[in-house]
Amino acid sequence: MRRPLRNPAGLLGATLVAVMVLLAVIGPPIWGKTAAGIDPERINQGASALHLLGTDALGRDLIARTLVATRLTLGLALLATVLGTVSGVLLGALPALLPRPAGRVVIAVVDLLVAFPALLLAMFTAVVTGLGARGAVLGIGVALAPTFARLTHTLTASLAGADYIAAARMLQVPRRRILTRHILPNIAEPLILNTAQSMGAALLGLTAMSFLGMGVQAPSYDWGRLLNEAFGHVYVTSSVVVAPALAVALAGLGFMLLGDTFAQAAAGSRDPVGTPVAPVVAPARETPVPGAVLEVRDLTVAFPGGITPVRQVSLTVHEGEIIGLVGESGSGKSMTAAAIGQIVPHPGLAGSARSRLCGVDLDGLLDRERRKLLGSSLAMVFQDPTAALNPALRVGGQLAEVATLHDGATPAQARARAVERLRRVHIPRPAQVVKQHPHELSGGMRQRAVIAMGLMGTPRLVIADEPTTALDVTVQREVIRVLREVVDETRAGALFISHDIAVVGELCDRIAVMYAGRIVEELPAQALTTARHPYTRALIGSLPDMATDRTRPLTTIPGRQPAPGDVPEGCAFADRCSLATARCATRPDLRTTTDGHKLACWEAA
User: Fold this and answer.
1) How far, in Å, CA of 467 to CA of 454, rounded?
2) Is the pLDDT of residue 271 over 60?
């Protein structure tokens, strides 16, 4: 509740709704007698000192009648909203309970009702059930129900493939219990938010029905009925419509603002709380590494709430060199890549002592210059090629966009380059592939197409973020071979990110091992078997090979990696390490050993 009320729109909406509810409670007791008082001498008068907004056809004060009508208006709107919500949820949930043919019939009926204009559906229902407050409430409830039914069905269908739903079905749990226990509790939030927004729509709909003479009938009155009675005199005394019209506008605005604000708050409820603060990193004092394609020093990424997934990471990548960045899931590898490419998701912020690409200091460039350098010199290959490629566009168009945007190539030149780049990554029939959509390609072909997209310019650095994770071993080997060939042909540097230390050892020249946001060891790939850090040795030991004793359980690392917001001050691996001592309460710095390894450990030999 506190977050929406900090939003000006949410605060305004909450205030308007609170005022309306208060008036609904105190209106009839305080102004009921004034609203019912007939004065034949002041019939249909305009604004005056005694009646600030005029009187009606019986001389009754319009402000008092509007205040008294608040209770009936809000009460009917609440009833219509509850009716529409309950009936809509039940209708939308029916396909999950009924056999498939019957469920399809229900879905078709819902689609038909959604396509029908809501107000006409409400008017038709009111005519059938009888004019008056009851008919209007039923009509608005029926008009709201299809929207809730469509939303319920969509949310229910989105959960149909969840593993816990499949497990429940395998255990022969009844459909009704799956719906009430596993589905409805998980879709309750958007339904409740939609209910809050629908309250405003119900209020406006009921007002329209009463204004048209199909809602509340005399002697009862709501805001719509007051507008209906005053409409005949609006051209003579225009003030007679001000009070009910203003009440309708303010109440509708209040409910709409409050519903939208709660919806926005729910959408961002999983965001870290607090204001983003850029990490403070002192500038690097040592001279830049000559000839390095990439050089970052003390790279740090911070999110609100004290969450720091990357902590003082330093990396150097030379031409024609592939650096492997390896570690368990959650160690900060992908966030490091995002920080290098300056695409850290909001509300995270990155800072570094030095960040140089192709010898150019990125921090010293203007935004336009930085985008141009990153767009032309950096290629990123993401983990999920399905998400990296737009499913609605053809592959060739997406590749060509890079050349036309950054290099100013003509469409014909960009298309020819796309075909050539696809051929370079060993995709058969590239001229045909450029005409296809991503879903028409296999997983390995999509991944190679993403690599080809990165090669559409002339990248000096390729960042491959776990590009082989979802592929089988045969396709993994093809992708690794393509990356190696690309680096050898273009002399670009590459940063290869993976949690599979065996793949990294096969492909890379040097390996940096990451744990809890920090690099704990850096060593040549050929020296992997002589790794010194206990975490690196544990990763290697957890990989089975042909000589592994199959009668013994696989080696595992006890415990779990700390969350980015819970990293201790000392060595983060200490509580999982068999070599840990009291000295590990102080964090070791990354130091260079006599044989050229970089190591952050007090006890490793």
Assistant:
1) 13
2) no
Q: Given a cut of 90, is residue 137 above it in pLDDT?
A: yes
Instruction: Give residue 532's Cα distance to chain centre.
Output: 41
Cα separation, 351 vs 279, in Å, equals 6
Cα–Cα–Cα angle for 332, 334, 339, nearest 5°?
Answer: 90
Provide the whole-model pTM: 0.65
Determine the Cα–Cα distance for residues 376 and 383; give it in Å rounded to an integer: 21
CA angle 380, 454, 325 (to 5 degrees): 30
pLDDT for the residue numbered 28: 92
The predicted-structure confidence for 114-125, as pLDDT tens digits, reads as follows 888 888 888 888
- Distance, CA of 476 to CA of 472 (rounded, Å): 6
Residue 268: per-residue pLDDT: 55
Query: What pLDDT is recorded for position 246?
Result: 92
Domains and CATH numbers, the chain: 2-39+49-267 (1.10.3720.10), 292-599 (3.40.50.300)
Q: What Å distances lie between residue 465 and 119, 235, 399, 497, CA to CA?
A: 52, 70, 19, 5
Q: Helices marked H in 508-589 — which ranges?
A: 534-541
**What is the DSSP secondary structure assignment for residue 61, as one 8-state letter?**
B
